[in-house]
Amino acid sequence: MPWEAYALLLAAGIIGGYVSGLLGIGGGIIYIFVIPYALHFWNIPEQWHAQVIIANSLAAIFFSSLAANYTHYKKKYYYPRPILIIGLASIVASWFSLKYYINTDLFSMKAFLCCLIVLLLYMLVLTLKGSVVPANQSVQKVPLWGLLLIGLFSGIVAAASGLGGGIVVIPLLNRFFGINIRKAGAISMGVIMLTSLAITLINLNTKIPQMTGMIGLIIPTICIALSVSVLITSPLGVSAAHKLNPRWISLIYAGFLFIIIIDKSIRLLSLFGYTS
Q: pTM of the full predicted structure?
């Protein structure tokens, strides 16, 4: 790849790491915009483009979430019970999604994008409503069934979108169970670390026929360029999140959801041939 591609990936890693720590959603919201550009320099079959973008985004997300979780732990802002329950459910859901749908010929990007856009619009409404609703500070009051359902939804979305499951975890915890969005972001970050690691291990063993320079679906040069700066920027984002008013975090998060909705809508229209 030319130096311009490396510079773009490095910049995306810096921004994505900070956003990951600030909002608790992983850096995938940034990575999915730049990875397609880097793929122009790889002779990857068209039918595998979506899977490779998702796989490399989630691999980079793991490193940003790892750094963010360490910072949360140091600040004593870590919640093992909901993280483990949601995370395990998310891993199971993502494994089934990858094995029986996403990494097969059955996967339809059009159908997935339609469902994702509807889900994101719903999450956007929930987030905007939640930003003006008083939140319950007790994480322990979230019932087991609620944590399991959140995990199942987040695992499917993470495996199929490359965004990490935070776009599901945060608004559901915040709106339906009254969890302060700052705490919801900390829980989301722990879940993302577990889920992205599990999905990456699966993708490392998913081969594209006759491709070199890759480990399964993972392109090491792309992941390294995205991840090299997150050990610094992700903790900075966490520190900023602890200083910001939760309502502002909700509004910033809603703004990023809106950006994703626009991007995915444009992508969907292009698949139907409505854009050049």
A: 0.82
